[in-house]
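Sorry to interrupt, but I need a hand with the structure work. Could you add the entry underneath, on a fresh line?
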Amino acid sequence: MNINEFMIRDVIKVRETITIKELLKLLVTNKIGGVPVIDEQGKLQGMISDGDVIRFLQPRGRTIYDVYTLILVSEQEDLKEKLKKSMNLPVKQMMKKQKLYTVKPNDHIEKAINILAENRFKKIPVVNDAGRLTGVISRGDLIRYISTELIKD
């Protein structure tokens, strides 16, 4: 069984240049937990999940640095202050680029299952040989496919 048999082809995706504010509106409006980030040619650049957004928007706590009797204090930041500073930043500043896992349309279903299980991801982007986004697979997609196609009563 190959990925192209059950992947979502109509993918909600964003460009690196949209703002965090625009991203938040998109996630809430579409009731989704993450999106792939592409460049102008449709090539995958990264992924952003709702967890990435939460971690990025988390206010910094108060930090004290002691550098050989020179003491530096970084003051605590509150949520409203952090939101105000962050809303107009491009999503490029918070998207995941490292350890970006992908599958190809002709990969076997087991590859997607292994990636989702080992990394606890919610979604995996599907890319063609040129690195262009062609779809996504979520944990829910896999469960539905396994339930309807593989465990037929």
